[in-house]
Structures are given as structure tokens and as C-alpha cells.
Amino acid sequence: MTEVRVPTLGESVTEATVATWFKKPGDSVAVDEMLCELETDKVTVEVPSPVAGTLSEIVADEGETVGVDALLAQVSEGDAAPAPKKDSKAKPEETDTAKATPDTAKSGSGDALDIMVPTLGESVTEATVSTWFKKAGDTIAADEMLCELETDKVSVEVPAPAAGTLTEILAGEGDTVEAGGKLAIMTQGEGAAASAPAADSKPADSPAPQGSGRTDVENAPSANKLMAEKNLSADQVTGTGRDGRIMKEDVQKALQASTQAAPEAKAPPRAPVPADDAAREERVKMTRLRQTIARRLKDSQNTAAMLTTYNEVDMTEVMALRNEYKDLFLKKHGVKLGFMSFFTKACCHALKEVPEVNAEIDGTDIVYKNYVHMGIAAGTPTGLVVPVIRDADSMSFAAIEKAIAEKGARARDGKLSMAEMQGGSFTISNGGVYGSLMSSPILNPPQSGILGMHKIQDRPMAIGGEVVIRPMMYLALSYDHRIVDGKGAVTFLVRVKEALEDPRRLLMDL
């Protein structure tokens, strides 16, 4: 008899609730087949069977709260049972891109494998097929990207579980699929012959370009899609990502370079513009991410009593300190010293004095956070996302800069997991990188505060009875007036201003 126990649930998580049992006593189970699903306040954890055999007894029923290493069930060892095709769920990987768990059936030319929708994450039950990088009949390598799914939070790449041939595509681009649903069928084996695709299958227009000598490096899905649309091969693009990975920006640069290299090539003559405005309009369906952004921002306006207060900060001292130490900082820590670490530190400092800005409303309660999980808003080709840097208040300047750089790169590549975008207690948005001089940021619910940074611009200032030119930045704090009073909001912004105009205050906790 083998015991099935609650696995390690993560840092600071000591208990979970049994959400769903996929098996009942007496059912046959295979090794690593999912037995049940546990829910914590942070993640959902699937519990696999440690052995093949029969589920003898369920000790903790659905709805029960269990601690780490608590007994969940017992399995009697025996002959391996085949994994079911309908109820089994994909086993989550440790990386943010979950791999599909194939179902296997013997065929005359090899093993027929079902390409399934992977686990999409906590509270996400469906996704939209965004892009197919392969079409029916194409030969595929193990772990090669087959398609990209888009949820309302993140993009998920689906790799091939084995080498072989993509036989049939069951869910075409634009189709909505559920977690655990079937995406396609492939035939395993290098020499497997591809059968004709089904009539209702919707193959992609062209396979994803592959660069010669780079078969072990997967390009960004957005780059593959753009190269396919522009009939550009990977050999024509220089990748700047890790290990030579081609990013969307690399493809755009290659297209721009080719246009500049051939100025004599004239664009084809445009057709006469029709008089009817409708004929000159283009209707494009909103992505799930854009729909979610629109819904959440409108919900924030409808729910919170949102108000914005403004101030300005003289960036002279921060810029001088940065210029003095940026080379030494880069040499020692391997990351550039930017402005975001100063603003993050200044906000953490101010949040300690004005904790209501770091709080949230839960029903009739106010939840005060004795930590700072800092959200850093980042613009991506598909929309705005807010990755969270956890415990930013206990991190050094270098650790903050490294975290921001890493999260930003993952955001641009569409590689952020949902866990990386949840649990933030306060947010910083830097509209200054786009040239914004002043704006009123919208709260990221359920948070009660968001700081808007803006463009640094030289302005004449009256200092000591004289007019001098100083690099100034407008700051905007949007806050939920249900929790934060005007005095608290103004105090917070003044503390941020003071810390930035005299960065030594941050070192002395003043």
C-alpha cells in the first residue's frame, strides 16, 4: 500500500483545500496520473499518483483543508493502468510554459499522439488558439513549438511531445479551447507518414521559420508570426535574444533595413479610395488580453473612489548619483543602474509611513500588507501587463534592477506566468518612457495606490531667490479614497519626493 500525501505547497504556504478528485476508490491509476487538485491562496497544485495500481481509499474529501505532508489517499500497487483520455489533466511543468500530456494509441505507422491543451493556470479554464506554427502534414521535432494559445492573462506555447508528423489540426486559429481539450493529432516516429487533414481542420498558412544551425533555439512566437507574414526567413534576421533567439523587434529591424537598402523599389499603385467609409475601415477582434485589460480598468473606475494628487520632483541628485556610480554598478552587479530602483525604494520607504496606500478592501475589512509586492507596469506588443516583484521592500538596488530587467524581458516575450502577475500590493507606471509629461494612472484592483512617473524635462525653477534650470518630473498618485484620505495621499507623495531629491535619506531610513 502506497500513501499519497500533500506535496510541498511553496514558501510560506502551510495548508490547502482539496478542490477536485479525478478518481474514486476502486479506479485503476497509472504512474503520474493526476489523482486530485489542491487549491491554496496562491496557486493550484495537482497531485499525481506515485505508483501504478488501484486507488484504495480517499482520506481527505473535496472541500477539506489539509496541511503539508497530510495523508490524502492510499494506492494499492499493481499492474499499470492506462491513463484515461478525457479526465486526465496535463501535469504542470516548473517553467511558465506547460507541456501537453499526450494520449497514445497504436496505429499502423507509429504511435498516434493527441496534442492536448496544457494546464492554463489558476482560475483559467479556456484559451484562444492564436497562431499555428505548423500545418497538417509537417514533420516536427520533439519540443518544437506547434502553436500558441492566448488566455486573458498570458500566452502559452504548446510544444510537440515527441518527434513525428502533425497529422490533423482539430482547433484552428481563433477557436476557443478548454483546458484539457484536444488541439491536434500527430503520428510519432521520424518516418511516420502524415495522413490527410480533416476537412474542417484549419492549418496555419505556413510553418514557423527555422534558422539554420539554430534548431535548439526557439524564436519568439510573435517573431515567427511576423516572419511568416512578411515571407522572411530566419537566416535574414539577426537575433538579439538569449542564445541568438529572434525577437519581434529583430524582425522589424530587418524589414526596415531591407526597405532602406532598396529605395528604388516602388510600392504598387494603390486602388482608388472608395467613397463609402465602411469600405475603408478594418474590423479586428480584440485579443483576450485586451478584453481583460478593458474590463478590469472599467471595473476599477466603477468600483473605487479614485482620485489623483500631483507633485513634482527635482531629479538632479538622483541623476548625479546614477552618473557617478553607473559604470561601477554595472561592473559589480552585471546590470545597469536605472531610475526604477530609486523610485521603487522611495515608494517602499513611503509605504511604511502611509500603510493605507499599500492596503486593500475586502468586503467590510481593510487588509494591511506588512510587505511590499511591487507591480511594475510594462508595455508589450499585445498590451499592458504588470509583473510583480515580491518583497521589494527587502531587496537591494541591484536585486530590484535585475528583477525588473528579467520580468520586462519575459513580458516582451509573452513568457510571464499568471503567478508572476498576481498578488501585487502597489504599482508603479512609467509613462515617461513614451514621452508623457503628465497623466492620471488608473488603479490596478484590488490595490489602493498607483504611482505615475513621467518625462524628465528641464524647466526653470526658483531656488534660493534665483531662477535655475533643473531636470524636473511630474509625479501622480492615483488612490482609492475609500481607504486613503487626502492627507495620507499627499504625505506619501511628499515622502517619495523627499527621498528622490535627497537619496541619502533612503540609506539612513529617514
Automatic annotation (TrEMBL):
It catalyses: N(6)-[(R)-dihydrolipoyl]-L-lysyl-[protein] + succinyl-CoA = N(6)-[(R)-S(8)-succinyldihydrolipoyl]-L-lysyl-[protein] + CoA. Residues 192-209 have a biased composition (Low complexity). Keywords: Acyltransferase, Lipoyl, Transferase, Tricarboxylic acid cycle. It holds the Pfam family E3_binding. GO terms for biological process: L-lysine catabolic process to acetyl-CoA via saccharopine; tricarboxylic acid cycle. Transmembrane segments: none annotated. Residues 84-97 have a biased composition (Basic and acidic residues). Residues 75-113, 191-219, 257-281 are annotated as: Disordered. PROSITE patterns: BIOTINYL_LIPOYL, PSBD. GO terms for molecular function: dihydrolipoyllysine-residue succinyltransferase activity. Its EC number is 2.3.1.61. InterPro entries: 2-oxoacid_dehydrogenase, 2-oxoacid_DH_actylTfrase, Biotin_lipoyl, CAT-like_dom_sf, E3-bd_dom_sf, PSBD, Single_hybrid_motif, SucB. Residues 1-76, 112-187 form the Lipoyl-binding domain. Pathway: Amino-acid degradation; L-lysine degradation via saccharopine pathway; glutaryl-CoA from L-lysine: step 6/6. It comes from the Bacteria. Residues 218-255 form the Peripheral subunit-binding (PSBD) domain. GO terms for cellular component: cytosol; oxoglutarate dehydrogenase complex. Its cofactor is (R)-lipoate. Forms a 24-polypeptide structural core with octahedral symmetry. Part of the 2-oxoglutarate dehydrogenase (OGDH) complex composed of E1 (2-oxoglutarate dehydrogenase), E2 (dihydrolipoamide succinyltransferase) and E3 (dihydrolipoamide dehydrogenase); the complex contains multiple copies of the three enzymatic components (E1, E2 and E3). Belongs to the 2-oxoacid dehydrogenase family. E2 component of the 2-oxoglutarate dehydrogenase (OGDH) complex which catalyzes the second step in the conversion of 2-oxoglutarate to succinyl-CoA and CO(2). This is Dihydrolipoyllysine-residue succinyltransferase component of 2-oxoglutarate dehydrogenase complex. The gene is sucB.
